[in-house]
Design a protein that fits this description.
Blueprint (H helix, E strand, L loop, with lengths): L11 H11 L4 H7 L4 H9 L7 H12 L6 H8 L29 E5 L1 H5 L6 H9 L3 E9 L21 E2 L4 E6 L7 E2 H10 L4 H11 L11 E7 L3
Antiparallel strand pairs: 1-6, 2-4, 2-5, 2-6, 3-4
Helix pairs in contact: 1-4, 2-3, 4-5, 7-8, 8-9
Length: about 230
Amino acid sequence: MPPKRRTPELNEAAQLSDQLRAAGYTKRDIARIINRDPSLVSQFYTRHKGAAFVPALTHVLEAVQVGGITDIDELTALAAPHITRRTTADGTRARVRTKAVLITPTGTGTGRAGAQAITSGSTRLRPLIAEAARRGLRLAFTVRMPKTSYIHASGSRTDSPGIRRDVIQRADHTEERSYGSATTGGFDAIDFARRVDDASGDVTAAVRQWLVETGRIHPDAHIAHLEIRTWRRF
């Protein structure tokens, strides 16, 4: 018989994550708590990463087991002060590797988030919005959700004035609607960047809150797809 393969021993970050998972949290929840992509949490197990997050995960686990705190937003706030950037061999702070945000010199940029990214807050869109705010750009967005989530009828000028043509109905009973355009002036990226910051970086929540506040969707609506577009207003 061939020798049995040894199961790799879990590092401390993975062990702490396992305890949080046993308490009912998913890898995606843990990623939200430490404000990172879910793929990094998976790498705690496969690539033995996560040493920099051990203090934060330890603090969060104690808050769950001893303090009885269960809300993810509260746990995120508790974790934040305990997360430090890793250092390089010479002791300097390592740079965070991120995907480039493509915004052209004219200010045109686009970012999309599908179902998987939506559930983790569409955080990949946050750098796009932040860069648009830094440059003083305008932005617009398109959302897709079930037809019943919208308050106004398709093409209503109250819902999205001047861009009635941008309503797209799909076979799965969802509907895409666009808010803002170069023709209507769009929205101030600085304002939306503030909204995202207020939502702890959750772009999905920030957009959804705007739609609820302005009376366009029902409070229990669920966004299935999100697209952000930017441009420079001349």
